[in-house]
Every structure is written in structure tokens, then in C-alpha cells.
């Protein structure tokens, strides 16, 4: 029987966001508890919230927004790999345990253990890794940190590598409870036209 594994952090006001970005807030216009006929609420937050998909518009002027990205990128066969890297290191091709066997790859670094506490020394992906994966037909790469680039990076070389290869990016995943191996990924972004990212409810489906 297939099993669905949630790989998204819960969205609450405690969920950490990039320093200086807009934290999650939910406001209630109507409340059943206060005598209204229904609950009605709105949210205010960064689009780079928790598990999210970056759009090319996030790192390249004039590039497509998340609402223009093909949904096929975010659904289908996927491989989860765990790597052994230190704080603030970039994952290189040599860190992969073996050749990948799926067109979507999620990388577990274990370097951002608490989604409610932002640590700046998380690991990231190298542009060489994206070049390596693209050569094997990978169309999406994800990571269990807030960014595929290091915290202090300004040139964002890994984001630029994704742009060169038209590769989809997922960030902010929770993967420590997931065994390495093959799954079906479901991580569809919202159709926010022109936006630089979208939160996703990322999940893995077992065979």
C-alpha cells in the first residue's frame, strides 16, 4: 500500500524565515468562536516560506515567474540522497553516494535541523553538482536548507547553474526522517503569476 511522507515543515508564526524577510502571519476577519457564521482569515508572508519552489525570476531579470513553470517538473520519480558535509560546505559530485537514478534529486544534508531556528552555517549545493546532475538528465533538485547557495553568497552560483540548465529548485525541505531511495515527488507550487517563489506542500509517495 503506498504511503505518503510529508517533507514540509508546519507553517506557524514560529517558522523561521530568511533574516529580514517577512514572517508568517495569519489574521482572522471572522471567527466562529466570536459568534460569526464562519471562520475567515488571510495570511501575510514571504513566498519563500518553509518548503518552497524558487522561480527563475528570483535570480534572473526577465525570467519566468513561478506561475509560468511547468507543473511536470514538480511531480514524478525522485531519489533522496544523504550526504556527509560539514557546516557551511557545498555538496560536490563526489559527495553523492552513487549515480542518481531519477530525474528529481533531493539532498539531505542535516545542516538545518530546526525549521524554527535559523542557523546561518547550513550546507548548500555546488554549481558543479548541478552541472553533474543536469548531465544525467535531472530536471529538479531540492535541499533541506533555506537555500541551494550558502548564506553569505551574493553571486548565487548554484542558482545561476540552475538557470543555465532550466532546472527547478526546491528549498526548505524536511528530510531527516526519510530513508534514502526512490519515491514519487509531489510538490506543486501555486500559480502565482510573476512571483519569485511559492510555498509547496512537498510530499513523497512510496511504491
List the main descriptive attributes of the protein structure presented here:
mainly beta; 2 helices
Ordered list of secondary-structure elements with their pairings:
Layout: E1 4-6, E2 25-30, E3 40-44, E4 52-54, E5 75-82, E6 90-91, E7 104-108, E8 124-125, H1 127-135, E9 140-143, H2 157-165, E10 168-171, E11 181-186, E12 197-199, E13 203-205
Parallel strand pairs: 5-7, 6-8, 7-9, 9-10
Antiparallel strand pairs: 1-13, 2-3, 4-10, 4-12, 5-11, 11-13
Description:
The chain has 207 residues and is mainly beta. The protein has a single domain (4-10, 47-205), classed as 3-Layer(bba) Sandwich (Glucose Oxidase, domain 1). It has 2 helices and 13 strands; from the N terminus they run ββββββββαβαββββ. The chain has helices at residues 127-135, 157-165; strands spanning 4-6, 25-30, 40-44, 52-54, 75-82, 90-91, 104-108, 124-125, 140-143, 168-171, 181-186, 197-199, 203-205. The longest helix has 9 residues, at 127-135. 37% of the residues are buried.
